[in-house]
Write a structure and sequence with these properties.
This protein is about 15% helix and about 30% strand. It is built from one helix and six strands, in the order E-H-E-E-E-E-E.
């Protein structure tokens, strides 16, 4: 059985609520994690503190952990924007080096 299912480039902008529910249920039955990547858009409205960016906001109840990858010079800043129901979203102090794909502690 898989320990992890990764779906890269899922189209969250479409109407896929039922598919997300079904994928989460399948992962639960398999006893594995489900990781999905999403693309956000610069011209989308800026979310309020504690809210997810469009197009993820409408699926918030079905997303446990959400991280954001933000450009930061020659690195990519990793930022936690949702951690289950926790409101204590501490700074991660991690960057990603896009050349080596290694994590760098700040």
């Amino acid at each position: 059985e898989p320990a992890l299912v990764v779906i890269d480039g899922f189209e969250f902008a479409g109407e896929h609520y039922d598919e997300i529910v079904a994928m989460r249920e399948t992962a639960r039955k398999l006893g594995c994690e489900l990781w999905m990547s999403a693309r956000t858009f610069r011209n989308a409205p800026t979310p309020q503190t504690g809210e997810l960016p469009w197009p993820l906001a409408r699926y918030a109840d079905h997303l446990g952990v959400v991280v954001s990858l933000d450009p930061a010079g020659d690195r990519v800043r990793i930022r936690l924007i949702k951690d289950h129901d926790s409101t204590n979203l501490s700074e991660l102090y991690l960057d990603l080096d896009p050349q080596t794909m290694l994590l760098i502690e700040r």
